[in-house]
Amino acid sequence: xxxxxxxxxxxREMPYGKYQGRKIADLPGHYLGWFAREGFPRGELGExxxxxxxxxxxxxxxxxxxxxxxxxxxHG
Length: 76
What we know:
mainly alpha
């Protein structure tokens, strides 16, 4: 995992499909699970979806909370 990927989860939008335009960090678990079963796309998008799936599956979505609150200043 690349550290910058955690921040990208909060800023990168799903480019297509049912949840087009939604931030990857905000995708529902069942949708991420579908990708895990059917296969993640190639490239960075697939890496981000796989990372978000792991966070969701292991109940670690809260790891993103400090990044959500911290913003650019790093202070919550």
